[in-house]
Amino acid sequence: MLRFLTAGESHGQGLVVILEGLPAGLTIDFDSITHQLRRRQGGYGRGQRMAIESDRAEVLSGVRDGETIGGPIALLVRNKDWTNWKETMGAEAAASESVQANRKPRVSRPRPGHADLAGALKFNRMDIRDVLERASARETAARVAAGAIARQFLEVFNIEVASHVTAIGGIKISFETISFEDVRNIPADAPLRCVDRDIEQVMVKCIDSARAAGDTVGGAFEVILRGLPIGLGNYAQWDRKLDGRLAQAIMSIPAIKAVGIGIGSAASGLPGSQVHDEIVLRPTRDETDDSPIPVARPTNNAGGLEGGITNGEDLRVSGYMKPISTLMKPLRSVDLQTMTEAPATVERSDVCAVPAAAVVAEAMVSLIVADAFLEKFGGDSVGEISRHVIASKELRQSRFPGTAKTEAT
Ligand code: EPS
């Protein structure tokens, strides 16, 4: 079982993640972890915090001489902004008057949409800062660091991960016909990582208008995985179904309000004949064809999952994000100190963070799929797992007629 836990506050010393369950013998590319962290920081619509931070993960354990050794991997992403927040966020009681004088004022006006009100009441905290610091999406930097390692594990088995932005503030692209290649070919400097450059410009203008109005906008993204083996996940129990596990992982990303697999909610409005992906024979096979059996699916409305298990098609998972809840032109709220109506707190924040959420979703999907992969092909070292993958393929070829390439061609 692959699992992870994060710790850390948005303006605390840093974010920590412990990732456990990866096999020994995985070569770690440190630059690639930094690259994923940089991607999360980007995207049009981000606020000033991202100009302060240049996220990098320090690997504290579990890796030696560039390879995993089987123990828990601990990562630390330091907050550069900590130097401005030491007095406010320090762990020790602020004894001296000078420390107290430098503390930021108490937050007492909860922002509608954030964890502020329910969190303050749940934990009985008089300063909403105690809630918002941990509820902040800053925590997702730790997930991206862990996800970058899970992704490197998947890459050993030729599984690739990509994402793209499919909507901003109601401006949408129809993403059903977009391929993994289209998404992978989006230039790294595209402001919103949308495949349609013209629509992307309209999306950029939408973010500009929201910023000018002191407002925020949400949107949607899609994560696509290519190269998955058939049979990850399990329909035998509710909590083993991969679609369910993915939905929880995506929903756990701050501000996500809905998840779709394949064509998602659109499937509920179409007849079965237009939803289900037919199964056809693929008679010609060549050496580059690595599929285990000679059948093909002309469409992929199911998004690569049938019965909660992977079917060998691209895995396609969408997430729908609400607008960020910190508004520069604040909504009505109540001051919990005075119990009078007052505008919600205004904190530095983003106008739109959909491209960042897509990168976080790539990380979460990588972690969930790596877990499902280990469940099927498990072993304590990369070598052992590779053998299990080969054995599984050989077994299938001996079972199903026409699966060996020589027979099918
Ligand atoms: C974030 C860091 C935060 C916010 C944002 C995400 O930095 P700060 O609060 O110092 O400006 O930019 O957090 C939220 C949107 C939120 O609701 O808390 C980050 O690193 O992603």
Task: Describe the structure in brief.
With 409 residues, the chain is of the alpha+beta class. It has 14 helices and 17 strands.
Note the topology.
Elements: E1 3-7, E2 14-20, H1 30-41, H2 49-52, E3 57-59, E4 63-64, E5 67-68, E6 73-78, H3 86-89, H4 97-101, H5 116-123, H6 129-135, H7 140-156, E7 160-168, E8 171-172, H8 180-184, H9 197-212, E9 219-226, H10 242-251, E10 256-261, H11 272-275, E11 280-281, E12 295-296, E13 305-306, E14 309-310, E15 315-321, E16 332-335, E17 340-343, H12 354-377, H13 382-399, H14 405-408
Helix pairs in contact: 1-7, 1-12, 5-6, 7-12, 10-12
The structure holds ligand EPS.
Ligand EPS binds next to helix 7.
Radius of gyration, whole Å: 23 Å
Please give the domain count: 1
- The fourth-level CATH homologous superfamily is Chorismate synthase AroC
| Beta strand % | 15-25%
β-strand number: 17
Oligomer: single chain
The rounded distance between the terminal residues' Cα atoms is 39 Å
Helix content range: 25-40%
**Outline:** globular
CATH class: Alpha Beta
Mean pLDDT: 95
Tell me the major beta sheet: 5 strands, antiparallel
Computed structural class: alpha+beta
Q: Which CATH architecture would you pick?
A: 4-Layer Sandwich
Ligands, deduplicated: ligand EPS
Total count of helical runs of at least 4 residues: 14
What CATH calls the topology is Chorismate synthase, AroC fold
Across the major sheet, the strand order is 8-7-9-15-10
- Spans of 5+ residues with little confidence (pLDDT < 50)? none
